[in-house]
Amino acid sequence: MAAKTSEWRPGPTVCRCCLSEGCYKDISTEYFWMGKREVYSEMLSDTFDLSISYSKSGGPNSASRLICEPCIGRLRDAAEFKRQVQECEKTFVQCLDPVTALADMQVTLELEKEVKVEMVKEEKMRLSDDDDYGAHDYGDDDDDYDDLDDQPLTKLASKIPKKEDVDVLDLLDNAKVTEKRKSSTKVKGQPSKKSKCKQTAGSSKQQKPEPKKKKATVRVTNNQKSRRNAELVLQYSTAYPFRVRGKDMLCVYCHEEFSEPNIYRNHMDECHKTFTVSTAFIHCGRGKEFLKVDITDLKCRICSTPFENLQDIAVHIRDTHGFSEINTDCEIRMQLYRLNSEKWACALCNEKFATLVQLCRHTTSHYHKYTCDVCGRMYVTIEALRYHTRCSHSGKNVCRKCWTDFPTSELKREHVKISKTCWNFCCIICGERFVSWEKKQKHLTEVHGREKKMYRCRDCDKTFSARKPFYKHYKLVHSDKSHKCPFCDFKFASKKQMEDHRVCHTGEKPFRCDVCSKMFPRKKDLQQHLWVHSERKQFVCDICEKQFAQKSSLNGHMKSYHHEDSTFKN
């Protein structure tokens, strides 16, 4: 493909490989694709021995170090092809002359062994920095993800073929057989035995240290250091850990539920003066999930000195009380909350929320590190991003529970409706599953006698029997997230509702029927109208079985012909 030099206009958003203009990725930033780390400037250097530099003279495109997706794809193919050729060349040389290839490989491995080991360790540490919990789900739909290891990145870092160690052993065996055959033809057996013994001793000396060097590669990753920081801060401070169940705080030690934060803090002070630190982290998968902690009354447990944040108290515990294991260069794997009885507010940005669940979903967004290249959703861990990509961008219609692939999305939705084992909501008492959260709550009330949940607004003390009216009330009255009509100042909970209302002022009718060309102001009005042109009618009279396209027509029919005053309910 020829470079687009004739069509390109200088600017800061151009691809440095084809000069096409757009919003692209930075060429020197670390990205992850299919579980592998990618830095495109390094790939260009390794594959083609090319480097991309900044312009020192300035100008509109002096800082452009971007690369577009087509060029990234071609670069990946080239890097993979180079690796394939190198592996094939090694295999060919080994088969052609195994003894010579063995000698060359032994020297190469001896010279590069230390360098390659360090590269593997650095890359493993880099990936461990990325292993973090969280999803930009604001609905927690991607929490079930697989914990994966660092193996793809290790292979990428070392650039040694997978089976090289096995091939070396095979070559050693072949070399020994060859030497044995040569020595059997010689007259003087004793010197050959000595030389053979020396060779054997030398080869054994080379092979023995290898396990020790493999042990040396085991390092404490940044992920483990962050987890250790959290454990020490939790043990020697009054950072109170908790989980969320429904709308209540759940004690991580005794699983008792609390609706008010001050009562929960009193419970922690009275009932859990001594505790097992590892118990608090049981629900954190392999230490990658952040532990939720309330730091409203943060103090050192040893000397009772108060602190405002975790970083300060971590430094205090390390320097004052001698816990040198705390590494302040790594993060403390905790999510911060300052909880009080008046309002649910974020400890980092002070934004208010209607419930504790909404606050937790928002707080997680402050710890996001990984962004989906396709839809822009963000996640705290690389595993959560992989799970999201597998579920949402694989090009397949896959059920997230049973992983059955369906040819169309309609068949998948039909499967989820009728397959009870794939329903998302489960009763914690009897294990029965439900298709919606509301049906689960109704089951708990009617079958297990649980008290019906009521929702109290902390800002105005109004009480609601269902969560949707409560959320709508909070959004319209107590938050800045409502949508106001520019013509009459009415507020709406969603932008779609506001747009549906706005056409009353503008008179717009953007939706057109393809059959009769009639125009409609709203999409739902057009969808309802299309039943007029459909052979199958949606509304049927229970008495005379006459069919109608619209509910209003059926209601008129009931009043006129069957003298029914009540309107039809679908």
TrEMBL record:
Segments forming domain C2H2-type: 344-371, 370-398, 425-453, 455-483, 483-510, 511-538, 539-567
Coiled-coil annotated spans: none
Keyword field contains DNA-binding: yes
Region annotation Disordered: where it falls in the sequence: 128-150, 179-224
Annotated residues for binding of Zn(2+): 15, 18, 68, 71
Skewed-composition ranges (Acidic residues): 139-150
Location of the ZAD domain: 13-95
Keyword annotations: DNA-binding, Metal-binding, Nucleus, Repeat, Zinc, Zinc-finger
A matching Pfam family: zf-AD
Signal peptide range in chain numbering: none
Superkingdom field: Eukaryota
Localization in the cell: Nucleus
PANTHER family with a match to the protein in the record: PROTEIN ESCARGOT, ZINC FINGER PROTEIN
Name this protein carries in UniProt: Zinc finger protein 879 isoform X18
The gene coding this protein: LOC112047122
